[in-house]
């Protein structure tokens, strides 16, 4: 039988990205299957009571319970760690589970968190409101203001959280700068890298201590199931994250892990084409000349273009469009779409568009939304794999239906 190489670090570290995505992390059973096996089991049997005791004691390799680890999930985690360049990874049931587990594992009552203020709605609520219920305070800063980051730290600051690019405004944070300041102040940095994906940006290489993903997005890439992943060092995993995961159980289903593994085999191809499409669509939307603003990190005149070129290998798959007359006009535009779906997901093979103020950021107070730059006229577009000309023709018709002069 062909020997396993997907988990042999001496071999996999030499592989290029595409090979890692297809073959990294793979474990083969004695059957010799080519596609990863799906281990749909909650528990594991032992040859004797002594083996069970030895495994729980950590003296014997092997699995004990799928709340602690599962072989299919382990393959997904190993592949994620390989492409991220992280020492270790653990999967979770959702992206928000990854975010909350990462943060709760490094803060306690009396601690202080510094965060960029522009975040996914649930992340903002968690940082600002939910952590407060546990005695953790926070300071929110403009992510693009390095001086604000420096001035936000307090003696009890233990953690930093940021998104870059941010959801949905696409603001970019200087990750290396923030990590350096945080470490000078004894704080750990958690980066939500969902919009950039592990293929376009590597926060760990810039100093991040923990990187999180909603694998629901580009990693699955076809809108099939939920998932999340936490990537970090072996030390942080063992000392901070595993004790919390072990006793709270936010685990990813083996079936969902298997779907993610299949999605990762084509991830490079999908992301490359989606970025290419997003650039064409963003420029085409701007050329229509009827929107208040079209924003995309890949624009040559993007306000943080130098930082984008420093941190990211492409502009990403998300574009924002601002309607001049607010919500009513935005809704008319959405309702006239025939190709793009109205949906609040991103990273799908299908193009998706949503009105953040009434969906993804509905749970955030209006004043806070406006402070992030989320107006009633903002629409967020996740560009998929359709032909960009079909998308642009659809958008032109929708713009006309919304009363815009095209």
Descriptive labels:
406 residues, alpha/beta, Aspartate Aminotransferase, domain 2, Aspartate Aminotransferase, domain 1, 5-stranded mixed sheet, 12 strands, 40% helix, 14% strand, globular
Q: How large is the radius of gyration?
A: 22 Å
Sheet having the most strands: 7 strands, mixed
Helix count, DSSP H or I runs of 4 or more residues: 16
The percentage of residues in β strands lies in 5-15%
Low-confidence stretches: none
Backbone structural class: alpha/beta
> Which geometry do the CA atoms define?
globular
- How would you spell out the order of helices and strands? HHHHEHEHEHEHEHEEHHHEHEHEEHEH
User: Which CATH class of the largest domain is shown?
Assistant: Alpha Beta
Number of domains: 2
Total beta strand runs: 12
- Strand numbers in spatial order across the main sheet: 1-7-6-5-4-2-3
Task: Provide the CATH topology of the largest domain.
Answer: Aspartate Aminotransferase, domain 2
Average residue-wise pLDDT: 96
Question: In the CATH hierarchy, what is the superfamily of the largest domain?
Answer: Type I PLP-dependent aspartate aminotransferase-like (Major domain)
**What is the end-to-end distance?**
63 Å
What report would you give on this structure?
- The chain is α/β, with parallel strands linked by helices.
- The chain folds into 2 domains: about 10-110 and about 145-155 and about 175-265, Type I PLP-dependent aspartate aminotransferase-like (Major domain) (Aspartate Aminotransferase, domain 2), CATH 3.40.640.10; about 265-400, Aspartate Aminotransferase, domain 1.
- The longest helix is centred in the C-terminal third of the chain and has 22 residues, at about 265-290.
- The model has no long low-confidence stretch (mean pLDDT about 95).
- It contains 16 helices and 12 strands.
- It has helices spanning about 10, 15-25, 50-55, 70-85, 95-105, 120-135, 145-150, 175-185, 195-200, 235-250, 255-265, 265-290, 305-310, 325-335, 365-370, 390-400, and strands spanning about 90, 110-115, 135-140, 155-165, 190, 210-215, 230, 295, 320, 340, 350-355, 380.
- The termini are far apart.
- Helix content is about 40%, strand content about 15%.
- Helix 8 (about 175-185) links the parallel strand 4 and strand 5.
- Helix 4 (about 70-85) runs parallel beside helix 11 (about 255-265), helix 5 packs parallel to helix 6 (about 120-135) and helix 12 packs parallel to helix 16.
């Amino acid at each position: 039988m062909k020997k396993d190489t997907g988990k042999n670090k001496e071999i996999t570290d030499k592989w290029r990205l595409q090979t890692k995505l297809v073959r990294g992390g793979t474990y083969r059973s004695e059957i010799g299957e080519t596609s990863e096996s799906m281990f749909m089991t909650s528990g594991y049997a032992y040859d004797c009571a002594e083996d069970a005791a030895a495994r729980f004691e950590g003296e014997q390799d092997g699995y004990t319970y799928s709340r602690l680890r599962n072989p299919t999930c382990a393959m997904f985690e190993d592949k994620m760690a390989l492409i991220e360049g992280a020492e270790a990874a653990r999967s979770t049931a959702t992206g928000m589970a990854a975010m909350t587990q990462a943060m709760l594992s490094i803060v306690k009552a009396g601690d202080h968190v510094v965060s960029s203020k522009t975040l996914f709605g649930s992340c903002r609520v968690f940082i600002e409101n939910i952590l407060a219920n546990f005695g953790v305070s926070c300071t929110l800063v403009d992510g693009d203001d390095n001086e604000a980051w420096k001035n936000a730290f307090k003696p009890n600051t233990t953690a930093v959280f940021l998104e870059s690019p941010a959801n949905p405004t696409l603001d970019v944070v200087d990750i290396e700068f923030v990590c350096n300041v945080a470490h000078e102040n004894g704080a750990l940095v958690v980066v939500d890298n969902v919009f950039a994906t592990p293929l376009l940006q590597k926060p760990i290489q810039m100093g991040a201590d923990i990187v999180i993903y909603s694998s629901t997005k580009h990693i699955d890439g076809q809108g099939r199931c939920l998932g999340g992943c936490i990537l970090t060092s072996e030390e942080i995993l063992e000392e901070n994250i595993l004790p919390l995961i072990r006793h709270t159980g936010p685990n990813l289903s083996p079936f969902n892990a298997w779907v993610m593994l299949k999605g990762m085999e084509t991830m490079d191809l999908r992301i490359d084409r989606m970025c290419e499409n997003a650039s064409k669509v963003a420029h085409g939307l701007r050329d229509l000349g009827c929107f208040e603003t079209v924003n995309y990190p890949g624009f040559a005149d993007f306000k943080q273009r130098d930082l984008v070129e420093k941190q990211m290998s492409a502009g990403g798959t998300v574009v924002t469009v601002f309607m001049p007359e607010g919500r009513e006009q935005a809704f008319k535009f959405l309702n006239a779409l025939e190709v793009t779906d109205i949906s609040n997901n991103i990273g799908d093979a299908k193009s998706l568009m949503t009105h953040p103020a009434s969906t993804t950021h509905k749970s955030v107070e209006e004043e806070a939304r406006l402070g992030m730059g989320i107006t009633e006229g903002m629409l967020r577009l996740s560009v998929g794999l359709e032909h960009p000309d079909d998308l642009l023709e659809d958008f032109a018709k929708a713009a006309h239906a919304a009363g815009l002069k095209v």
